[in-house]
Automatic annotation (TrEMBL):
GO terms for biological process: defense response to bacterium; defense response to fungus; regulation of defense response; response to molecule of bacterial origin; response to salicylic acid. InterPro entries: WRKY_dom, WRKY_dom_sf, WRKY_plant. Residues 85-137 are annotated as: Disordered. It comes from the Eukaryota. Keywords: Coiled coil, DNA-binding, Nucleus, Transcription, Transcription regulation. It is found in: Nucleus. It comes from Lotus japonicus. Residues 108-122 have a biased composition (Low complexity). This is WRKY domain-containing protein.
DNA sequence: CGGCTTTGACCGGCGC
DNA sequence: GCGCCGGTCAAAGCCG
């Protein structure tokens, strides 16, 4: 995975595009010169050329903005990555398998040390201390992942649409969070072992934190439902059991690049496994659709609209 | 009537 | 051993 590769590609694209338009501009200038030398240009042609030049200037400015955006994105990525690297250096042994039975202990200790407690991080993040103390490999091998749903503040339901069919089997108010936690089992397939816990974030009640345990042994029941939540923005961070939980608040990502420095990715847990970020970046980098969309977006900004 | 939700009871792990 | 706590069970109620 190499962020710079696609960034470079994009930049190359920009540069090339610049060149294309500069070529066009030069041709026009040559053409103008030719006309000015030999023939009298018509005023109509002058106007259209002037308009083209203006358009070129505008497009160049937009292109410059896009370039800056890309640069800033890359900078943000590098910052995140350096933080990760630093974290990984400080916490080299962070591959421990968590145990649900140790959760409580972890939570109570985390509540003291990390009053933020957003999204119940304490559930999936284990302190270095405890991971060193009590490794229990045989406990939960099931994949644990978290999904963050941004909901309307008025939406008090604990329903997270993820495309699967769930049956609620319990609800509990936990100690560290005044909002109740709902327990779901996958009811699409009787043999599906997946469980889900849904609870509102302590810090931001508009965010639903869904914790998935296990993996579905059946196809998604409704792919459409997964993306149909109009008022919800879902971010999935698939965490291999013990990895610290990350919240990437993409709901703000559509904002301008100026905001992107303030915009998160909101990392509720200060530590993010590098491999996770790399995986995410790799997914984007290798996704031809993403590239195509990026190229389309850039070229759509640059090409003159008819 | 079947499936789902609600909710109090129960169970087991953990700390003291 | 006891109390606390999270997780689960299961009866009752609701709804289409």
């Amino acid at each position: 995975m190499d962020c710079s590769s696609w960034i470079n590609t994009s930049l190359d694209l920009n540069i090339n595009s610049h060149r294309v338009y500069e070529d066009v501009l030069q041709k026009k200038e040559v053409e103008n010169n030719f006309f000015s030398l030999g023939l009298r240009k018509s005023s109509v042609k002058e106007e259209s050329n002037g308009a083209l030049v203006e358009e070129l200037k505008r497009v160049s400015a937009e292109n410059k903005k896009l370039t800056e955006m890309l640069t800033e994105m890359c900078e943000n990525y590098n910052t995140l990555r350096s933080n990760l690297t630093e974290y990984m250096r400080n916490n080299p042994d962070n591959k421990e398998v968590i145990s649900t039975s140790k959760k409580r202990k972890s939570e109570s200790s985390n509540n003291n040390s990390n009053p933020l407690g957003v999204n119940g991080n304490s559930e999936s993040s284990s302190t270095d201390e405890e991971t060193c103390k009590k490794p229990r490999e045989e406990t939960i091998k099931a994949k644990v992942s978290k999904v963050y749903h941004r909901t309307e503040p008025s939406d008090i339901s604990l329903i997270v649409k993820d495309g699967y069919q769930w049956r609620k089997y319990g609800q509990k108010v936990t100690r560290d969070n005044p909002s109740p936690r709902a327990y779901f089992k996958c009811s699409f397939a009787p043999t599906c072992p997946v469980k889900k816990k849904v609870q509102r974030s302590v810090d931001d009640p508009s965010i639903l934190v869904a914790t998935y345990e296990g993996e579905h042994n059946h196809p998604i029941s409704s792919q459409m439902e997964a993306t149909s939540g109009s008022n919800r923005c879902m971010t999935t961070v698939s965490v291999p059991c013990s990895a610290p939980t990350v919240t990437l608040d993409w709901t703000k990502s559509k904002s301008s690049c100026k905001e992107s420095k303030n915009m998160n990715p909101k990392i509720h847990s200060p530590e993010v496994p590098q491999i996770l970020v790399e995986h995410m970046a790799s997914s984007l980098t290798n996704d031809p659709n993403f590239r195509a969309a990026l190229v389309a977006a850039i070229s759509g900004q640059m090409l003159p609209k008819n």
